[in-house]
Amino acid sequence: MTTKFKVLVGCLVLLFAMLIYLETTEKEDINWFPTYSKKDKIPYGTFVLYNTLKESRGAENIVDVNRPPFEVLQDSSFEGTYFFINTQVPFDEAEANRLLKWVTAGNTLFVASNSMPEALLDTLNLETQAYYDLDNLENKPVLQLSNPALQRKNAYYIDLEIGATEFNEIDTLETVVVGEFDLNKGDTTTLEEPKTHFIEQAFGEGKIYLHLMPTAFTNYNMLYEYNYRYVENALRYLPENETIYWDDHYKNGKTVQQSPLYIFLNNRYLKWAYYLLIIGVLLWVIFEGKRKQRAIPIVKPLSNKTLDFTETIAGMYLDKMDHRSIAFHQINHFFEFLRSEYLVNTGNRDKQFLEKVSLKSGNSEEETKNLFQFIDDILSTGNVSQEILLDLNKRIEQYKSTT
Predict the structure, then answer these.
(1) Nearest-angstrom CA–CA distance, 49 and 161
(2) Where are the bilayer-spanning segments (predicted)?
(3) What are the domain boundaries of the chain?
(4) Given CB 3.0 to 4.6 Å as the disulfide criterion, which of 96, 101, 145, 156 pairs with 230?
(5) Tens digits of residue pLDDT in 337-381
(6) Does domain 47-247 correspond to CATH entry 3.10.620?
């Protein structure tokens, strides 16, 4: 290894070490994707809410549900509060009907979502619409609960730009307004024009709670000033002694199986270790292969002159019209074939010899006898014509092809 090569490798290693250091020490960007997953500690995760519920209600009373509600509610022992929180909770008509039937039996349904399923709204005589304040570019809502016992002197301010949705039409005979909101108009302590976003409705023997601002239950909002008290008071409407079934099926950040390579590439340290390994292998192949590999010269194999020699000798015999010599050579070549392939002695061509050759070659005894009779006639004659020579060649090739 030359000094120049060592310096080059050292510079490359130092360069990669600096890149890895800069990458690993760089502050990671905040992930603002709304996963609403109980495992995520990012702003729009629900890690704080989930663990707060486990502490306040008891871990044994919080049950994770990973299957669709339509499938889960087939179990008659499934009783308590079904808790949904996500950007959207897309119940179809059959699933919504099964949920409502389950609530009728005396259970509780809680749904926090930016939009409610049409099948649910139609049954409950509700309508929603997006709310915009064209005179205000800031879409940061201010929340307040309707119950005076649960109200805070100053309203709860969500320091996030979000899209707001309101219940613009409700059945006042069946529906109770639980919470209201307004967009920030400069005063974050009061609601100048309250809009409904949180309602309660009795349904059969149970109750349904619909909340149009799931952002209020996220990690960011619960850790912002005193907003955790809003969540605490909002969840007081849920029955205290019932099991809460936490839905993990309708989640943007639902856990799915990932390949090992995906996990590697999504971890900063594993990703750079993987890249460094690949780069190191490539460098080793390039430099080590260049240092040791040499061009292998092409050596032409010796040409086989046997065929040329045979053609020359055969041409000489043909020119002299010496068919008898050619026939003898052909017979000797055939005998050599019998001796090498069948291990028979061609010196004594008696009946036992014919039977052995017939058995090993797969030809009949009659064919074998005729062939050797023809050969013996040629060997005993003094003159061989061209027709006999061709006939001999034909018979031998046909006999060998059967073998």
Answers:
(1) 20
(2) 269-287
(3) 3-27+260-292, 47-247, 307-402
(4) 156
(5) 878 888 788 777 778 888 888 887 778 888 878 878 888 777 777
(6) no
